[in-house]
Each structure stands twice: as structure tokens, then as C-alpha cells.
Amino acid sequence: MKKVFTICALATTVLFSACKREDKDETVVTVDYTTSYSNFIKNAAGDTTTDRTAGRKLNKMFAGELVTYMRKSTSQAINSSDMKNMFAGSGFSDVTLNQSGLQIKANVASSFPSADADKIRAKFESYFDSLANISTSFADSAKEGKAGIAYNVTSKYLCDAKGIEWIQVIQKGLIGAFQLDYIGNVLLANTNVDNTTILSGTKQTQLAQNWDRAYGLLTTKNIYGSSASSTIHGESQLGAYAWEYNPYNPSTKKALDDIHSAFVKGRIAVQNNDLNAAKTQADIIRLTYEKTLAKSALGYIVKTKDKTTSVGARIHAFGEGLGFIYSLRFCKLSGADATFADDIFNDFINTGFYKLTDKQLDDAATKIKTKFNL
Asked: Other CB atoms closer than 10 Å to residue 352's CB: what's the count?
């Protein structure tokens, strides 16, 4: 049997003359893992009130453009200025992104006080410098004390002289600093924003827009994880890792798609102006994201220790783990912060891959398991 959620939805009329929404008749809809995000989120005229355009554009800036550009560093030298431009909302191959007025940088660490957020944004720009600097060594082989390419069968990974793969630190770090923080700690965390006034040129309130942007930044699909094209069901970045740890298993008929169901139920609750229900669903999403990042960090710690694999595979795992460990500072519901994350992250960065000990890895895993109750 499918895991089914039944929820009451209100048809709403948008009164453009007064720029207010008016609740109308209540109907009952069924929400399950096959429910499209926007199916039942409509006004009395039958028009959907969802608009995920902004979130999807931010998703493409990160997953489709910045990450794609950084990956070129294994076969050519790349420029720090190009990455910084994309970070700040320009220089994309898709001109519509350049014209969108959106940017990754402004939304990185945006739940933090401005001074702290600026330091984090500057930190990522310094990481762009680190990646660009070692990209000039793309034709060299990596070894301790020498930047270059580390290999695992046909895969190749660019790392610095200490065995740090900066593309992974940046990419996985932004999953936390950009996606998790902006979605969880900004867009979904506050349900006390305007849910009455219709924003100019839209059919949405500010709260509704926040939820739509959050969903678009997670996935470009109408049903999260609906593509069977790969083991991560066609998702990328946060969407891929959240799917890996929260899939729907058709063989056992056990639904673990908490994120998609919570997004749909929460957005309908926003439409109904049921703020308590919206907050309940927001907390489910946020905590699932946080557990996902912690589990990812632990998984890569295990892979870094696995000496039955190649040095290249372990360097790659170390880089991914570093990025996720950095991201743990944004896991606010779980009680993690910068002090917790930096205690592990800085120790690993200062040591580097080649001199890292199993004890350091084991100690880090214990701290993460304890903090996140894993």
C-alpha cells in the first residue's frame, strides 16, 4: 500500500483590487509520494498559485553552472574570477541567469548576522582562489608535497600538495552554506511572514513564495526524486544526498520520502493559512536535511579510512567529507554551530590527507554521531 496523507485544502480567491487573499470552500485532497508539488495549490479560479522560477534558477546557477565550471579543473586551468562572478550572479552561459537579479553569494549563510555571513562568503572566495591556483597542475600527478591529479581507475581528482580536493570542499560546503541554510534556516524557518498580501505581479503571498523558492532550489521536478534515470533519481547536490538517505522503496512499499510529502503538505498548509501545520512540515524538512549532511559526513569518513581502495578514491572521499563537515555549522535544529564544525574541519585541513590518522577520523565520527544522535 502507498503511504497516504489526507489533508484539507482551501480554495482561495485572490482579490487583486485589494491585494488580499480570501479563503473559500474547504475540500479534501489526498497527498502521497506521487502527488505533484502544485496539483492542489490553486485559487478559486483554478489557477495554481505556485511559482518555482526563482528557486530553479538558483538551483541551475549552483548545480548546472558553477559546479560544471569547477569540474573543468581536472583538464584545464580555470580562473578564480570566473567562479567569483558566478558566485555573485554573472558570467553564466545561460544569459537568463545573468539577467535574473539572483545570486548564490547573497544567500550564503544568510541566516547568520551580516558580519559573520560576510566572513563565510569571503572564505568561499578564498577557496575559489585555492582551486584556481592548483588547476595549473592539471597535467601533473598528485603526491605528498605536490599538487596534481589523483586517480581512481578512470576517474581523476585534482588536489593540492596536502591531498585536499578543493572542488569537493567548495561544492559540499555550499550544499550546507547555500542550500541547507537558505532553504531551512531562512525560507522555511519563519512562518510569521506575510501570508495575506498578494505580491505585485504574482498570485502568491510572501510565505507562499518562500516555500516555492525552497522547493525549486531543492529540485527542478514536480515530484522530487521521480526520475528513475539514476541511483539518485536524477537529483543533484542537496537533492541527491537527501534522496540517498530518504528514498521511496517500491519493493518494500515503505515510503521514506519525508521531504517531498512535507513540502506538499506544508505548501497546502500555507495556502490554508494554517501556520502551525506549515511549521510542523518545515521542521520535518529541516531536520531531514540536517541528518542528511551528518550522515554524508560520516559516510565519507568511513570511505577515507578504507585502505582497500585506491589513494585517489580516499583523497576524493576526504574532500567530500571535508565539505560536509564544514556544512554542519548550518545545522541549527541539531544544535551544531561554527565552533563544533571548525573543531573537526580545521584539524583535518591543517593535517591534510597524507598525514591524517585513523584516530582523527574515528574521533570526528564519534563527535558527529553524538551531536546528531546517529
From this structure: 17
